[in-house]
Amino acid sequence: MSRTLTINIDKNVIEKAEIYAKHSQKTVSQLVEEYLLTISSRNNHDDTQLGPITSQLAGIIELDVNIDHKALLTDALSEKYI
Hints:
The chain is an all-alpha fold. It has four helices and no strands.
């Protein structure tokens, strides 16, 4: 079921959105609906969303939980700059 929503948006933003929508073969309404659906379906406990490539790669490497990441970074930077 669709409803009409009236919003005020800067003219330049609308023009850019229309161009983007045309290239995406969508309407501006579809773009807005998809955006609102995306932000409204986010998990409230986790504000970070991974991109599709990152999601595919997440978890493929297992690291020792006892590694001191700061020490590793310090060592790497020391090697690079000293």
